[in-house]
Amino acid sequence: MKRRRARQRLALAVRVRLAVAWYVLRKLGPPLIATASYIVITTVLLRWDYRRAGLEVPEFGAALYSIFRQLFFEPTESFPTTTISRVIVLATPVLSIFLIAQGLVKVGSSFLDREERQAVWRQIMSDQLRGHIIVCGLGHVGYRVVEELRLLGEDIVAIEARAAGAFVEQVREMGIPVHVGDARRDELLKSVGVHRAKAIVCATSDDLANLEIALDAKRVNPSVRVVMRMFDQRLAGKVGGALELDESFSTSSLAAPLIAIQATQPGVRSAYRLDDSIRVTAEVEIRKDASTSTVLEIEERSACRVVSRRGADGSGFHPVRPRDEVKGGDVLVVDAAAVDLPSVRYQLGGGG
Q1: 118-249: in CATH 3.40.50.720
Q2: Hey, what CATH topology would domain 2-112 get?
Q3: From CA 248, how far away is CA 345, in angstroms rounded?
Q4: Using an 8 Å Cβ cutoff, are 159 and 183 in contact?
Q5: pTM of the model
Q6: Beta strand pairing status for 199-202 and 268-274?
Q7: For residue 139, how many other CB atoms are within 10 A of its CB?
Q8: CATH class label, 267-348
Q9: CA of 17: how far to CAs of 28, 126, 191, 322, in Å?
Q10: pLDDT digits (tens, 9 = 90+) for 248-279
């Protein structure tokens, strides 16, 4: 998995660099084409003027090289005697200054101006991402979602309606492209690569906006996974099923079980509803005089599943296997039904 992720990162870095090079070439394209056209035309005109004046006509390649050197104030021939040739020799350096300045202005405006540079980088990154996740809305929920996705190593593009949004700059400092605009616009969804994305999270504070974004995303990319925030959880369930959206959630309904359990039980880390019951993950300390047991033995005699263990020495939590030993003073993170948590604490020695 890590190797695949590293290869994807390397491929993305190569694509981005090629995209930047192509962008520079496109910006310099008109001046370069104008310069090449000028060199060819003046070369033909110079040879025609020499022939008309009865002078020795230079070879086409030699004349072409001579005009090219003139662009950089490096003449290779003595000052000509005919009027047209003199005009060409005198005008060429002046024209080169204009063409070089034009190219520098076009490229420089994109990389020297902070806002323009950010806009270029944002669009290039968005164009090159594949299998990324789009987060719409950078309020408190959207920002936390971005943080968690980043910890999971996912590629992210964000959309926020207001440039002055509370978390826009923090997300940009993470190196994540943030587009400012209305995510309901098809043009913006396409510019963030919804047709290449693997998922879109609709996390704005407007239920109708989230619904419209979800429907638009599915219309553009039927295979994209849609996770939609809705304040009305009953409506969220109905809408998600009727419109074949992947997931819909209400932050209040997700938080309510956790708040309720934390008010009655210490050490609860998370809570979730499974059918009609509430399950929790919580820390339980093994009493210090307890005999050594295996994880499997604890799970057989207690109504819980052990998720991870921290040794009595205070080291961090680690995943467990059925045959791992648990000693007195260890701290376990267990998954259990909320109603069973007091008895689990009592059996393992953590108190009621």
Answers
A1: yes
A2: Helix Hairpins (1.10.287)
A3: 34
A4: yes
A5: 0.65
A6: unpaired
A7: 17
A8: alpha beta
A9: 17, 13, 19, 48
A10: 677 777 777 788 888 888 889 888 888 788 89
